[in-house]
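Support request from a user on the community tier.

User writes: "When I paste my structure tokens into the form, the page sometimes reloads and wipes my input. The last time it worked, I copied everything first. Here is what I submitted, just in case something in the input itself triggers the reload:"
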């Protein structure tokens, strides 16, 4: 007998038939004598619908002021609905089940709204209830703030709810059911030969998640890594467990080291800004970063280049595409303080990255990557590296070409 947390994303609970199928998957674990807590997302499209309504009304307001607390009250409702529906579907299968909202556990958060972080999960009530054989159906994405208000954990936050609950409940397993059957070497919509990985290291998954592979919320991977809780990613679309091995996200092991690169990720959410003719002196990058930090904008890739003129430099960096307008305004407002002469920007760029823990111990990875891009005549605008990743910024038009070229160059279609 084991204690299991099963998490189902929006498409897995997208309609009543899918909820019935989820109920059968949960029932099968419960009937084997396992203690089961289920974490659910809102039905697919529902959170977007709720966000759009909240945004629509907020835009009407000329008064300004924060509305994030009420935004949370609205968007958290999607998960409440699915908990009730799944609990009913389970009861119809003869399984004892009940729903739990975030505030009922309670799952407490920090003071933030819309992007709250989990402070604590109280398991005093749910834990004995699970031990008594009641399946707990928990609303993902939501909790209660220190002042007693509903709070949500940021888009994709149900993954984090599930991992945090699994840690708090000292679960033996955390299974994340989704609409794909595991983590792939790259996006199969771009490369049909992309392969499901049997295992992937936490560090690799963390890079892939933050680089735009949207299967798991980044925060959930961090949490699993810090608590050494392996996560299994698998599909809810089959009820035959033998056909559904999924991908295990876990600590690296020897079998993984044979692989140099594990995956190719891409993100179209970037924008590039170049500041021209800055004076080349200590402190200019700090001043630019300060202007961005004060505007709450995250700067990602940075490269400083000499300009043809002596003592003058150009600085290129990337920000999230959504922040581009805000960044330009902030930079223009700080123009005197920073001291640049010109500003260029481009929202039509894409960041393509290769990720693999094998890069730590293998040489020639960068060479293979840049040769593959050069052969296709793809110009690299900015480069960023870490111990297990190389990212390049390219013209968005070449995204598919670059992803395919890199997948091919590192033979990712072949099992290692
Ligand atoms: N329903 C929320 C969202 O769409 C949370 C989640 O599904 O993880 O972002
Ligand atoms: Mg998700």
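"...and here is what came back when it finally went through:"
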């Amino acid at each position: 007998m084991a204690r299991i947390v099963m998490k189902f994303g929006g498409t897995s609970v997208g309609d009543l038939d899918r909820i019935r199928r989820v109920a059968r998957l949960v029932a099968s674990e419960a009937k084997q004598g396992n203690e089961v807590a289920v974490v659910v997302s809102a039905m697919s499209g529902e959170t977007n619908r709720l966000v759009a309504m909240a945004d629509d009304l907020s835009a009407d307001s000329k008064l300004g002021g924060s509305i994030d607390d009420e935004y949370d009250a609205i968007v958290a409702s999607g998960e409440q609905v699915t908990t009730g529906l799944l609990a009913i579907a389970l009861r119809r299968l003869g399984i004892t089940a009940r729903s739990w909202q975030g505030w009922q556990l309670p799952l407490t958060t920090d003071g933030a709204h819309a992007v709250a972080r989990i402070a604590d999960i109280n398991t005093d009530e749910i834990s004995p209830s699970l031990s008594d054989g009641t399946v707990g159906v928990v609303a993902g994405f939501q909790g209660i703030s220190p002042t007693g208000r509903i709070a949500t954990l940021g888009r994709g936050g149900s993954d984090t709810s599930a991992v945090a609950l699994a840690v708090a409940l000292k679960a033996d397993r955390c299974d994340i059911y989704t609409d794909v059957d595991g983590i792939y070497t790259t996006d199969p919509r771009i490369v049909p030969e992309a392969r499901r990985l049997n295992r992937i290291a936490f560090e690799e998954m963390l890079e892939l998640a933050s680089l735009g592979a949207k299967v798991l919320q980044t925060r959930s991977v961090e949490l699993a890594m810090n608590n050494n809780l392996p996560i299994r990613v698998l599909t809810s679309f089959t009820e035959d467990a033998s056909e559904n091995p999924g991908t295990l996200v876990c600590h690296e092991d020897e079998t993984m080291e044979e692989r140099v690169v594990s995956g190719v990720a891409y993100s179209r959410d970037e924008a590039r800004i170049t500041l021209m003719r800055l004076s080349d002196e200590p402190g200019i990058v700090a001043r630019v970063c300060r202007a961005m930090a004060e505007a709450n904008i995250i700067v990602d890739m940075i490269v400083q280049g000499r300009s043809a003129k002596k003592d003058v430099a150009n600085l290129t960096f990337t920000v999230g595409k959504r922040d581009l307008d805000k960044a330009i305004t902030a930079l223009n407002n700080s123009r005197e303080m920073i001291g640049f002469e010109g500003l260029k920007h481009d929202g039509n760029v894409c960041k393509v990255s290769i990720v693999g823990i094998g890069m730590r111990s293998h040489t020639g990875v960068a060479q293979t990557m840049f040769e593959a891009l050069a052969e296709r005549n793809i110009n690299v605008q900015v480069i960023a590296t870490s111990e297990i990743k190389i990212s390049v910024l390219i013209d968005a038009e070449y995204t598919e070409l670059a992803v395919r070229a890199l997948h091919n160059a590192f033979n990712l279609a072949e099992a290692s």
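Agent notes: The reload is a front-end session timeout and is unrelated to the input. The longest strand covers residues 270-279. The longest helix spans residues 16-31. Escalated to web team.
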